[in-house]
Amino acid sequence: MQGEGVLSSGLSLAELGGRIRAERRGRGLSVERLAELSGISRSMVSDVERGAKSPTVLVLDRLATALGTSISRLLDEPAHEAVRVLRHDRQRVLRDPSGWERRVLSPVLADVEFEFMRTTIGPGVDAGEFAPHARGSREYLAVERGTLRLTIDDRPYELEAGDSASYPGDHRHAYANDGTADCVFYLAMELGGGHHETWYHETRRESPHG
Fold first, then answer.
1. Which end of the chain has less Cβ packing within 10 Å, N or C?
2. What is the pLDDT of residues 150-199, one digit of tens each?
3. Phi and psi at residue 46, in whole multiples of 5°?
4. Do 48 and 15 meet the contact criterion of CB atoms below 8 Å apart?
5. Which residues contact 34 (CB under 8 A, 6 or more apart)?
């Protein structure tokens, strides 16, 4: 399935779909309501839940956002150990067919909505625009190598190796590599709280659908 969409090492599409379905049902949402909140078609939501179709990273992010959670929580069970070592070969890796990948470095914690990621974007690749997360969310980013065009609500910021940025995660944000070499950056995301459906409808803008 590599190259077809999201690839999570050690997780089948059926398992991923089952976790999305469980999160949806746990929140009392119908397939139609999840489709409305995420901006993803009902048929795509249904196909992803059944494991019949591999979503892109953007589609998976929109589903997680609509569920008020993170991609990480859709990929892993919460860790209960006080100390958790996540070996390299056990980290979840999501690869998008457009030419970029996200490696999840943080374990899922039961009562904490936090995500720490390493992202690699190929030269000339636009990773697309991500929908706003819950109100009060924040993201912290540091570029390890290459160049990154970070766009917040249509305002671009050009970042180079060694640069860092912080910004509200409850705004539209996009990543692109206009350079001729891979861009590698680290991203930490802290999800805020609040009444999910209210903030989502207030902040939702047009962005690419899967």
1. N
2. 999 999 999 999 999 999 999 999 999 999 999 999 999 998 864 344 33
3. -65, -45
4. no
5. 24, 40, 45, 63, 66, 67
Question: In which residue are the tokens 């705004």 written?
Answer: 171
Q: Amino acid identity, residue 48?
A: V
- Length of the chain equals 210
- Residue of 103, 111, 107, 67 whose CA lies nearest to 187: 103
pTM equals: 0.79
Q: How far apart are CA 209 and CA 60, in angstroms?
A: 10
Give the C-alpha distances (Å, rounded to integers) separating 193 from 24, 171, 175: 17, 15, 24
Measure the CA–CA gap between 48 and 60, rounded to whole angstroms: 9
